[in-house]
Write a structure and sequence with these properties.
The structure is a single chain. The radius of gyration is 26 Å and the shape is elongated. It is built from four helices and no strands. It has a domain of 58 residues. α1 packs antiparallel against α2.
């Protein structure tokens, strides 16, 4: 895991260095690096793919339920014992009693 994180970090630093060299060349020397954009794009994609595994394994990814956790709590009606009994009596084809 550490090797993947170091490789992804090195790719990110290399991408920043290419971008910096391209900026210096474009604005001060009037010459840009023609392949810089493509290489930076591939380095960024590689950085993301190398970090997917370690981030997912450690549980530090951005969760999609961030908005749901901001909502006020509501009672869990689907799991209440009374509701389960009513659904069992109604049968599987009726969609359950409401």
């Amino acid at each position: 895991m550490t090797a993947l994180r170091l490789a992804a970090g090195a790719m990110l630093v290399l991408s920043v260095a290419i971008n910096f060299a391209n900026i210096i060349g474009r604005y001060f020397l009037s010459v840009s690096i023609p392949w810089a954009e493509e290489v930076m794009l591939f380095l960024m994609i590689g950085c993301v793919f190398l970090n997917c595994g370690p981030v997912g394994w450690s549980g530090r990814q951005i969760r999609m339920d961030a908005f749901v956790s901001l909502l006020p709590p509501r009672p869990d009606r689907a799991r209440s014992p009374r509701r389960r009994r009513r659904r069992a009596r109604a049968g599987p084809c009726s969609g359950g009693a409401r």
